[in-house]
Model the fold of this input.
Amino acid sequence: MSCVFRSNTGRVYNYSGRITRLGLDLGVTGGGRLFWGVFAPTSHIGPGVLRGNYVGASGNAAVGIGLGANVLVGGSNRTISLQPLSVEGQFGVNLALGVAGLTLR
Done:
């Protein structure tokens, strides 16, 4: 997937990403969008700082349009947290619960 980080200073940094899940995943979904807030130990986030592996709990449900929640921690020495409740829009019929992994490059 394509990922874009927009800092609070207005700068934009592009990443590529991959999500993996282990758990219950029933249904069929199409493309969607994910939005996360980023919590880091510094306000000076530059190019490539978010690269790394993140892991945590994940769940979503959809009947037509759905929403999801993800709790992911990782990145630079596990010091970056992606907002505990992300907004995830997707289309389809689906129910998923489990452990999620996100890799940003």
